[in-house]
Fold these 2 entries.
Entry 1:
Amino acid sequence: MARRAFTITAAALTATTALLLTGCGGDDSSDDIKGADAGSSSASASAAASTPAGVERPEITIPSSFKLTFADWKSDDPEKQAVLDDGREQLRAGYAAIIENDLDSEALAFYDTKAGLSQDQEWIRSYTDKNLTVVGELPVYDPEAELFGENTKAQLRYCTDESEARTKHRKTGKETGNPPGTEPNVAYTVTMTKNAQGVWQTVSTTSERGGCS
């Protein structure tokens, strides 16, 4: 179920990110941060606070059936905080698209570059092609942001814990978690770039199951 388990390149990563789904049609996926539902308003407020003046951010809603929790998603550096905020919202947008069965998510397009969106659409298809959605809880923790290129490029790293996350078949209602013995913690590395509006967009993502300390 990991959004992107196995150290792979962005493209592979989206394909392998079938949330907590090593055996159900994917192998990678992650989303929100601290309680999808409750986190919705607080996450949106945080994102709004870091949004450059004049930029209208998309509203992202995740149902209470899938709780994404972002622990300690804070930085004392405002530039790094902006990276954390946009990286979080991009992840929330991806899971919202899976839940809504929406390959053409405007929110995801807002937080992705063209290349990043293409890869994430492959990730979303790994669910929608199997008529799956996501349920349960997916904590996202240990965030670390690094800035490069005069603060125009960044790398965001974080971990997810898939222990309580599952996929659910939309028609039968059958829920499936990772196969027994699967390492539940997955480390992600996200490459990002700042666009002309000042929004940090995802270019690619790689992951490594068991790569968290």
Entry 2:
Amino acid sequence: MKYINAHNILPKDIIKVIQEYVDGEYLYIPRREEEQKRWGERSGSREALKRRNIEIYDKYSKGAKVMELSEEYYLSDKSIRRIISDQKKIMLKVSGDP
């Protein structure tokens, strides 16, 4: 995120009102709620992790051992087990099983 000089984009009367509250300090103005993105949506990290987790679950389903997956993906066995568990739940929801 880069800083923008308020004088370049805001009317002078708005700047004066803001200066009554914050004078010469940095001010963060958050996105409108409907414009906010979840973590990783902008960079693609969220989608990459989703694909990785599906891949891990697929390999596990085809017989890969937790420790093998742990070494391959540089994750703890606890993380691999969590991913497998989460993916199992997702697959159950998709298939419609209770």
